[in-house]
Amino acid sequence: MNTIAQPNMALREPIHPNTLHDPVWVKGSLIAIAIGFILLFLCLPLGLVLFQAFSKGLTAYWTALTQADTVSAIQLTLITALVTVPLNTVFGVAAAWAITRFEFLGKSVLTTLIDLPFSVSPIISGLVFVLLFGAQGWFGEWLSDQGVKIIFAIPGIMLATLFVTFPFVARQLIPLMQEMGSEEEEAALSLGASGWKTFWLVTLPNIKWGLLYGVLLCNARAMGEFGAVSVVSGHIRGLTNTLPLHVEVSYNDYDVVGAFAGASILAGLAIVTLVLKTALEWKQHRT
Amino acid sequence: MSISLSNISKKFGQFSALEHINLDIPEGELVALLGPSGCGKTTLLRIIAGLEKADAGRISLSGEDKTEQHVSHRGIGFVFQHYALFRHMTVFENVAFGLRVKNHKTRPSEAIIRQKVHALLELVQLDWLHDRFPDQLSGGQRQRIALARALAVEPSVLLLDEPFGALDASVRKDLRQWLRNLHHNLNVTSIFVTHDQEEAMEVASQVVVLNHGRIEQQGAPSDIYDHPANAFVSNFIGQTNIFDLDGEGNAWLQTAGLSMAQVQGKIAHVRPHDIVIEKTKVDSDTWVTLKDWQHLGALIRVELVNNGTTGQSAPVYAEMSNDQFRRLQLHKGDKVNLRIRHAHWFH
Fold first, then answer.
1. Is A184's Cβ below 8 Å from some Cβ in B?
2. Kind of pairing, strands B56-61 and B64-65?
């Protein structure tokens, strides 16, 4: 269809099968190992989740899902995602813009720091906020004087999630915007468009699929995050339990159906994410 | 609109891209900024557009100081080297962009936008492509759409960055002529950047030669070719033979019969067509050897080596018409005499 996309297409073609002359048994066992691994470590657990969730029948599953604590956990998870994902979308776009469009001191440090939440253990991410805002933390006394509660409350969960999911959008956009260059934006400016119009009419349409991809991954993590949230949450049932925390608490209470019913929702979310991710990847390569 | 630059300087880190550039371009000219890569020509163009900020100096258009004005308010049309067409918009929307982003007070009605865009597409002879996307166009077509898009906002100045750089040789030749005609019809002050001296000579009414961030010479193409201001310009514009009197050039000049009284500097630059060749008379002792020759179409280029020197020096080139070459009945290895008709002297 177009001349520019063709080299990329060629690159994505698989290695020509004729160039590989491995014996049949090598080929066969490699494929068997790959499939066996996926079955054992991905499909079997997923199947078990569903099996356990429905082990006491559909009614028990439904009861587990509709009990007050579960509903509240689902609500909290949704609210957390609803707050953190848009914020990180804005932060991510701003950071990607700053890094790809401006030259400034400390740019490489910033680029590295964006990845920090990926490289640091989630427990540490949570602890940082406890050390800052907890009762014994730097701002703890002042905050309690003001009557503001962050740790063991919803704001702490939001902050921890925000921190953990920060890199997704920026990481997705930086290489994309670097590759794209700023010529189209400069052209828009030279044609009299304001910076704002240039962003909406030129930049955003060019990065939209990459941006959606980043938002999707960000959302999946925001809803699924366990470690960091676990540290700051305090596990107060019906108040500060997100869905992953609810699953753990239920499991520890020997409520197998309740735990796996919650897990089935998270598993469903993962599958939806996977399908959308594949669709977005396909879309991104096409444009 | 006339363009006036005074004392423009620009540094990138330690590298000095432009040093004290002073340039006046009268209204309606088609100017080529010509120079080798890295000479600062694109930087200068971007500074005029407002895409880059000069460290020092002033820019004025029609006597009005525009130094601090943002690119979106300068009223310039900029055509990018790689066209920078909006890839997610059709050709029509690309050209309409500049009209659509005007604020609602100055924005023309949809009917007028439609009419204007189609008129521009007719001007660049590509109206039939109006619903295509940029990646469905050839390089030459993209170039013309980029030009139509820049013209849509009726710019007072048109700036083109290496407008033919990314095109095939044959397309380039056509587009050069086309751009010249277009400029003749629109008469908007235009500046284009190029590293191709032939292109500059062919298209521009004024040529500005840049090197290492400085202007070496400014003038009409014929001026620059016939009266190069210095050795760089002489060497960069057109073919030239260089004779360094401190080196082996001396022997050549003696062979060519140039007496010391005619010497006006340290280095002589001689155009290939200013070297006249004659078949050697039997008793002559100042001959050179015709090593090889090439057919350049209308001209024949002759490669000469001087047997008086070690024979390892660079050859000297002379050019003559096909007719003349035939009349001389020259063959490889012939001994010939040469005469220098005209030389430019530099110190």
1. yes
2. antiparallel
